[in-house]
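Recap for those who missed Tuesday's class. We walked through two folding examples back to back. For each one, the amino acid string is listed first and its predicted structure tokens come directly after. Nothing is annotated here on purpose, so try labeling regions yourself before you check the end of the notes.
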Amino acid sequence: MIDIYEITSRLVLAAVLSGLIGYEREVHGRAAGLRTTILVGVGSCLMMILSMYLHAIYAHSADVDPSRIAAQVVSGIGFLGAGTIIRYGSSVRGLTTAAGLWAVAGIGLAVGCGFYPAALMATGIIFVVLVSLSRFERKIRKRFDKILKIEISGGIDKFCQVTKTISDFQAVIKNVEVKPAVGKNVFRMILTLEIYDQKLSNEITKSLVKVEGISTVKWV
């Protein structure tokens, strides 16, 4: 049975390794940041230590499987990861963060059972993937930020129709600003879009001008 010093060192190491992954997520403003990943890593480590402890104290009196609690951590972390995934129109966000939480849980379990080499190597690989490959992805898949101004008359249904039309072209709406305009029920929308092809701006314009109530569509 491991002593208090070994327990402390494992919990602290789990916090440090998971915190390294959480730091990268925090820098990029993701839903599961530094505190969340540390809690997941330390919690997973604790569950693994608890599983080993129960196996040690009941080994001669009951049939205890030391992997049962760990298995529940692996499946249970999926519910937490699902909370970070957001579907907005045709785009889905949060998949990398959800996968990161699942990986951090694995790191915590590895530290909890004393498998330090695997935990350290996995942390290094995950951190490199999150930092380096994100830059590589941006290079192979160019993105353009453009501002679109729309003047439209109507209610909230028109706003929903506009956002749906834009999302149908795989464009990501990064920011929306709504201001009142001259006229009854007339308002002006200023949208910051992220698109992957400059030519899409013309296609988006053609689709928006067909929406009833839109009087102006202008790219800035």
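Example two. Treat it independently of the first, because the proteins are unrelated.
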Amino acid sequence: MGKTILITGAGSGIGRDAAFALAARGQRVIATTFDEAQATALRAECQTRGQALEIFKLDITLAADREQLRPLALDVLINNAAIGDSGSLAEIDMGRVRRIFEVNLFATLELRG
């Protein structure tokens, strides 16, 4: 078997597509999603496609969720989880800006450890 690859934010978009593409190439893919609903939907898509992914919920901002990663022997980490906002920076609520930095910067850096 190939490398063990963890992908955060694999519930949709590029993360989901990368997970399936890498699994199709023989890699062991651990695909994580923000919430259990996304994990359930991704499991259903695996059955439909006939592909195997290891899937679990991982909110990268939660230390308890990040602890799930400790026992894993990973070769590659694809830090894909992220959120965004649009509009004038002057009009975006500061709480939302803090949340964006927490997810996109601080929590992402916490995964390296």
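Answers for example two:
The radius of gyration is 15 Å.
The chain has one domain: 4-110.
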